[in-house]
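REQUEST ID: PR-0412
SUBMITTED BY: lab tech R.K.
PRIORITY: routine
TASK: structure prediction, single protein chain
INPUT:
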Amino acid sequence: MKGKGYIDPAAADELRYRFDRWAVESVENRTASKRYKQQRIRALEMYMFPTFGNCDIRSAEHFSKATVGAWVNKMLKTKVKRGSKTKDMSPETLRGLHGLLSSVLKEAVVAEPPLRDRNPCDLTRLPSNDDWGIGDDESSDDMEFMTPEEIAGLVECFPRPSDRMLVRTAYGSGLRWGEISALAARHARNPRPGEYELRVTRAWKRVPGEEWYLGPPKSKAGRRTVEITAGLWQELLHHGVAGLGKDALIFHDGSGGRLPYSTFYDRWMAGVAEAKKRGCCRSGSSPQSMT
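STATUS: complete
OUTPUT:
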């Protein structure tokens, strides 16, 4: 219709209450970084829109204790990628998704005028870590940490010198993967005689759909200096750190670029399998068990 367009204004107003539109607008209007918003919208698209996308944010039938509970049970059966493997969704991931859904519904509760009487997520019980249970071949401990003797045996099971150095550095510094893989030669320092350190000022990050980039740690506390032993310092020198350009990555993909976690994870698991075969390693399901 001339002057009014092709969409009934009343129908357009109704569409804004559809969950997929409401949720995206909710995230976009938050005072947060672009990366935060893109991550949350990606989570909505992957895990919530398939179930709730066409639902009415105002509906007590579409969003109730029963429907949210059914969605939680669906997520419990959802597989997610961890490195090169596919595993069940972790309790932490589910809690994060549930929190995101709750925050979107809460905005409908506090809207002026209110669009909902209550937030059904407040009525949902999430499984605890203990509810997940363990397999017959898994430890009941939350995490196992490797001993110095196990690390020494494990290191010998990696054919690549760079991997052996990475394992030693991870164990000697306690750095996370995103931090240790972002170390450049200038971050390995000998500021005074007898003092050796690794300076953590950045980590690898990525906005979904875009390339990886080097950015600051998540918090100010993450920007820190980690003391290392004289022995580890000598090993780093033997590895060739002193001969690298100041901005060159210490641990890389072989061509100077970012070393993907999935690439190292496959080599890690092969090394762990060999160490277990030799009887010098009992744990090591993840590189984090070194730290």
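NOTES: Residues 1-11, 129-143 have pLDDT under 50 and may be disordered.
REVIEWED BY: pending
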